[in-house]
Amino acid sequence: QVQLVESGGGVVQPGRSLRLSCVTSGFIFSNFGFHWVRQAPGKGLEWVAVITSDGADTYYLDSVRGRFTISRDNSRNTLHLQMNSLRPEDTGLYYCASAIVTDDAFDIWGQGTMVTVSS
Amino acid sequence: DIVMTQTPLSLPVTPGEPASISCRSSESLLDRDDGNTYLDWYLQKPGQSPQLLIHTLSYRASGVPDRFSGSGSGTHFTLKISRVEAEDVGVYYCLHRLEYPYTFGQGTRLEIK
Predict the structure, then answer these.
(1) Residue A63: left (phi > 0), alpha (psi -120 to 50), or beta?
(2) pLDDT (tens digit per residue) in B36-82
(3) Quick one: which of A23, A103, A59, A38 has its CA closest to B50?
(4) What are phi and psi of B55, to 5 degrees?
């Protein structure tokens, strides 16, 4: 069964750090690129970052570049998002997503992990 | 960055009636190298993660009923539901995948009258 399970969310003060994880199962992790997508409370979806299957290339939303780092551990079938210098506007539900069947559309999503940045 | 604009933002529909959502992009989503148009549609049902409905302009994702269809070209796109059912309630988003950063439309909330 193909599955993505996020964890690592929580409540953190502005300026602090948090590391999200996305553990996968049911498919060959190293064959696929992965994305992080977030959703502020009551708001729409916002693409955050992507990493290619081999980890060689990464791309970021302008507002998180330099603060967030996407990475992967192919030996543990796990995706990460290291979030530093967090801001209140980073608050939201963070989803990992990938394209397992389609070319690059998000055909599989996790359930999300909630990040709250507040003093 | 490419800006995606959806209309309407709210869509009340009677069950059995058709529905249509428009999405416009600030630039053409046609990739002239491969001929594909990188526009997807997603549905986020209440309390759930988003799910893929349509990818690459008009290809239905696995398991998606054929009452859903995607069309358009260049910068104008449409998601059509031929006969709305109660289970179609939720927020619909368009997404472009032409280049990074990918961007979503604001979302269209479909509700049953």
Answers:
(1) alpha
(2) 999 999 999 999 999 999 999 999 999 999 999 999 999 999 999 99
(3) A38
(4) -130, 155
pLDDT > 90: what percent of chain B? 100
Which of B52, B59, B96 is the best mutation test for A, with the most CBs of A within 10 A?
B52
How far is the C-alpha of A107 from the C-alpha of A20, rounded, in Å? 21
Cβ count within 10 A of residue A80 = 20
Instruction: Test A107 with B55 for CB contact under 8 angstroms.
Output: yes
Query: How far is the alpha carbon of A59 from chain B, nearest alpha carbon, in Å?
Result: 7
Q: Does A103 touch chain B (CB under 8 A)?
A: yes
Tell me if chain B has a CB within 8 Å of the CB of A3: no
